[in-house]
C-alpha cells in the first residue's frame, strides 16, 4: 500500500470570499505505517481526511492509493469519524455487516466477517445489542470493526476519540495501538491532541493554519513499549514541546 498526497490545494468559496483551507500539502503513508496529522483547529485536518476519503474533491493536486487516483469513496479506504455514525436501529452485528451487504457480499460471508471483526475489537458478546446500549468507546470499536470488515488497504481516522472522556480515550488509544500491531493495517489519523499523536504514530505531520500546510514531518523514535508510562519519558516530552512550539507559533502569528 502506498498513499500519496501530492501538492494538494483546497479552496472553499465563502461569503467573505475564497478561503484556502489547504495549500501545497504533500504526505505519504506506506504499508503498515501509523501516521498522524496533528494541527490546531481550522488547520484543515478534516478537510484533508475528507479529500483522502474521496468525500470531497481537491481544487488542485492529487491523491493516489497504489497509483490509482482517488475520485470518490472506495472500499480501499475505511473511514472512522469522530461523531458516532452507527445506524441506531440496527444491531451491532448488522451495523458491521452493512458495508459488506452494499458490496454484494453473500449473507453467510457477511455474518462470518462481521463476527470475526467484532471478536478482533472484543465485542462478540454485544453483537445483538443496539448502539444505544453501548458506551462511546464501544461504539467507536464497532465503527472500527465496520471499517476493517471491508478489508481496506488503509484506515482513515478522523479524531476518533475526540468525544470520549479522558480515561476512555486512554484505553482506546492503547486498544488502537494493539489492534494496529496485531493486524498490520496502515493508518492515517488526524487529531488536534499532540500527546495522542506522539503516543500512537510512527510519523507525524504537523499542519499549521491559514492556509493549512505541512510545517514539519517528524519520525518518532521512542524507547520501549508504548504504554502510558512512555508519556513520562524525556524524549516524549521533547517531541511534545517541539510540536507545541510549532502550533503556538501559528497562534501568535494570527493574533
Ligand atoms: N465546506 C466548507 N465551506 C467553507 N469553508 C470550509 C468548509 N469546510 C471547511 N472550511 C474551512 O476550512 C478551514 C479548515 O477546516 P477544517 O474543518 O478542515 O479544519 P480542522 O483542522 O479539521 O478543524 P477542527 O479541528 O476544528 O475540526 C476552516 O477555516 C473552515 O472554516
TrEMBL record:
Query: Which Gene3D superfamilies did the record assign?
Result: P-loop containing nucleotide triphosphate hydrolases
> What GO molecular function annotations does the UniProt record carry, in alphabetical order?
ATP binding
Q: Where in the cell is it found?
A: Cell inner membrane
- Carries keyword Heme? no
Fetch the InterPro entries from UniProt: AAA+_ATPase, ABC_transporter-like_ATP-bd, ABC_transporter-like_CS, ABC_transporter_ATP-bind, P-loop_NTPase
ABC transporter domain location is 3-234
- Which keywords belong to this entry? ATP-binding, Nucleotide-binding, Transport
**How does the record classify its membrane topology?**
Peripheral membrane protein
Please tell me whether the keyword ATP-binding is annotated for this protein: yes
> Which PANTHER family does the protein's record reference?
ALIPHATIC SULFONATES IMPORT ATP-BINDING PROTEIN SSUB, TAURINE IMPORT ATP-BINDING PROTEIN-RELATED
Instruction: Please state which protein family the record places this protein in.
Output: Belongs to the ABC transporter superfamily. Nitrate/nitrite/cyanate uptake transporter (NitT) (TC 3.A.1.16) family.
Protein name, entry field: ABC transporter ATP-binding protein
Q: Which organism is it from?
A: Almyronema epifaneia S1
Lineage, uppermost ranks? Bacteria, Bacillati, Cyanobacteriota, Cyanophyceae, Nodosilineales
Amino acid at each position: 500500500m502506498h498513499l500519496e498526497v501530492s501538492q494538494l490545494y483546497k479552496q472553499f468559496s465563502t461569503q467573505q470570499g475564497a478561503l484556502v483551507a489547504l495549500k501545497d500539502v504533500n504526505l505519504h503513508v506506506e504499508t503498515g505505517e501509523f501516521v498522524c496529522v496533528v494541527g490546531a483547529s481550522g488547520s484543515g485536518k478534516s478537510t484533508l481526511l475528507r479529500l483522502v476519503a474521496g468525500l470531497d474533491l481537491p481544487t488542485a493536486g492529487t491523491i493516489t492509493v497504489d497509483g490509482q487516483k482517488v475520485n470518490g469513496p472506495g472500499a480501499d479506504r475505511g473511514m472512522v469519524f469522530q461523531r458516532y455514525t452507527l445506524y441506531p436501529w440496527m444491531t451491532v452485528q448488522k451495523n458491521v455487516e452493512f458495508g459488506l451487504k452494499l458490496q454484494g457480499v453473500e449473507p453467510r460471508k457477511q455474518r462470518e466477517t462481521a463476527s470475526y471483526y467484532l471478536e478482533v475489537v472484543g465485542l462478540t458478546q454485544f453483537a445483538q445489542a443496539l448502539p444505544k446500549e453501548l458506551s462511546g468507546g464501544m461504539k467507536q470499536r464497532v465503527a472500527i470493526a465496520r471499517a476493517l470488515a471491508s478489508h481496506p488497504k488503509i484506515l482513515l481516522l478522523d479524531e476518533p476519540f475526540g468525544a470520549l472522556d479522558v480515561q476512555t480515550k486512554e484505553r482506546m488509544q492503547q486498544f488502537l495501538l494493539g489492534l494496529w500491531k496485531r493486524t498490520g493495517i496502515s493508518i492515517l489519523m488526524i487529531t488536534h491532541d499532540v500527546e495522542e499523536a506522539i503516543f500512537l504514530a510512527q510519523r507525524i505531520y504537523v499542519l499549521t493554519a491559514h492556509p493549512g500546510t505541512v510545517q514539519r514531518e517528524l519520525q518518532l523514535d521512542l524507547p520501549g513499549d508504548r504504554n502510558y508510562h512512555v508519556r513520562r519519558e524525556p524524549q516524549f516530552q521533547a517531541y511534545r514541546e517541539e510540536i507545541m512550539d510549532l502550533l503556538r507559533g501559528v497562534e501568535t502569528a494570527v493574533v
